[in-house]
Each structure stands twice: as C-alpha cells, then as structure tokens.
Amino acid sequence: MNYTESREQSAEILRTVLSHLGQNDAAFNPVSFALWYEHVAGINPDLTQALAPLLQAGTRLNDATVLQLFRAHIAPVDQQAVEQISGRIAQAMVGLAESALRTGDDAGRFGDQLSGLAEALKAGGVDALSPQLNLALENTAGMRSSAQALQHQVATSRAEIDQLQAELGRVRHEALLDPLTRVLNRRGFDQRLATMLQQPVEPGRSHCLIMLDIDHFKRVNDTHGHVTGDRVIQALGEVLRACAPADACSVARYGGEEFAILVPQSTLSQSAALAESVRQRTKALKIRNRKTQDVLLTVTVSAGVASLDAGDDAVSLIARADAALYQSKQTGRDRVSCA
Q1: Residue 212 contacts residue 261 (beta carbons within 8 Å)
Q2: Is 186-338 a CATH 3.30.70.270 domain?
Q3: pLDDT: is 5 or 258 the higher one?
Q4: Which of 126, 144, 181, 322 could make an SS bond with 107 (beta carbons 3.0 to 4.6 A apart)?
Q5: Could you say which of 5, 138, 167, 257 is catalytic?
Q6: For 74-126, how does the pLDDT look when each residue is reduced to its tens digit (9 = 90+)?
Q7: Any idea what DSSP says for residue 127?
Q8: What is the pLDDT of residues 141-159, one digit of tens each?
Q9: What is the C-alpha to C-alpha distance for residues 54 and 61, in angstroms, rounded to an integer?
Q10: How far is 127 from 129, CA to CA, in rounded Å?
C-alpha cells in the first residue's frame, strides 16, 4: 500500500489511530499501527468492512485478531516463505534428534569410563574417593537418561511436524482444485501457467495452451436445469482427465463452462491432436436420466490452441488461445482451431 497523505493529514490520522490503539488489547506494534492507520485513512475498504461488525459490537481486538486482519487485508502471508521456514524447522528438528542421540552415546561412554575408574580406585585402596566417583557415575547416568528422554521427545515432535506438513500439503492442494470437477481451479491454473512459462523450452518444442468451451451450455441449463448442467461439467472434467496425461499436462476449470489444458514441452500439432481427442470423446458422451437410463442429451465442445511465441506472457498466450476458441465458435462450433 502506498501512503500519500500529507504531513498534516497523517498527523490528524495519527491522533485517531492512537485512540483506537488505546481502546484495544493488542500491543502497540507496527502491525496494529498499520491496521488502524489504513482504516482511519479510509484507504482500505475491505479492511474497514471487516472491522465494522467488531467495532459495532464493541469488541476489544487482541494480538491474534489484529494479526489475522493484517494478514487478510494488508499483507497476506508469503506462502513460499512459510514453506521454506517449515522446511528449516524440520531440518533443525532432525539435527536436534541426531545431536541428542550423540549426547546419549557420549554420556554412556563417559559413564563406562567413570565406572572403570571407580573400580580401579577401589582396588587401589583409595576408599575416600569412591563415594565422589560413585556420585559422578550416578549423575552421568541421569544425564544419559535425560538425553534419551530428549531424544524421544524430539522424535515425537518430528513425527508431529511430518504429519502437520502432510496435512498442510493436502489443504493447499485442495485449495487449488475445483470442487465440482476435481481439476485445477482458476487459482491453480494461474500458478501452473506461471510455472510453465518459467521453464526453458526444449529445442523443437513449445509450451502450449488449449482453451475449451461447452457449446450451447446456456441452453443445457435452461432446458434441463442446473443440476444436469453440473453433471455435464463433471463429465467433461472426467474426459479431460482421461485424455490429458497427468504427468505431462495440467487440466483446469477456467471458469463456468470453460476449461483449459496446459501442455508444456509440446508442439502445436500435438496439442491440437490432444484437443481433437477431447472433442471426439466429449461428442460421444451421453448424459442419461438416472432413473430411466434414457439419454437426456449429448454435448460438444469447441477448442482453441496456441503455442508460446517469443515475447508471449501469460496474458498474451491466453488471449491468443481464446481468439482461436472464438474462431471455432464462429465457424460452427464442435471443432478445434489453432492460433
């Protein structure tokens, strides 16, 4: 956020900010200050909307609430940084476990040495030193026991971290999926497209994008209802997953009845052939009445294919694939066009 208020304006805002800080329970730190500053200055409507019910209810904001609002409306958490930190924590835990193991081994060896020394001293008649050596031996045994307990605790913590990381990965994956079709949603598509465009193109290959759209989908909804429309979308999602190999392509629901396939390290002709296989398989679909098994309808798709050109970015590549899709629509639908 860029702050453009003048010195006089910011001074006036500051007085109100200080009032808000004093009326709440959160610490007087930069996070709290930024939150109240943007609210008072009127430069963050989403934040002000989120604060409105809390202020109306007279809720005193604590540190957790302020941090949550700050992350949601001012500076969202950098997920990549979170992942890196998580990885470092896991590595640190592994190192700590190994360190504890070595400590236990060292303590054991030290105990053996002291035990031998005590026996030697006893044999030599130095009875006065024996109690002290025995005490040292007992302390060493306690140290070894503590190190073993630490090792067990660290191992348990590491298992918990592994479980949390697996759960975090699952949640992140779910957040990128369209719940109806189980293919990528628009956010997942954007991420995969950005990743694809960062990959160097192999000689004789290109990164390709296929855009597809269900023909006359509004007519499907108007005639058969939205439940049947959802079944059509689900069926197309299954066709796309079946036709596009998961290890080579990324399938996404781009929006509504429009889908996309990312095909890295391919050629325009290969991607057009993939789009054609989707078109043919979709045309062979039969959406049936679940009670009578009678065929309710069949559907077709139109597709547009574009390969990455020099100077292309995400916006231009999508625009060219969309233009090819529009060409398919304009020339009769149920066909594949290339940009």
Answers
A1: yes
A2: yes
A3: 258
A4: 144
A5: 257
A6: 865 455 555 565 565 566 555 555 555 555 555 565 565 556 556 655 665 55
A7: G
A8: 666 666 676 666 566 656 6
A9: 8
A10: 5
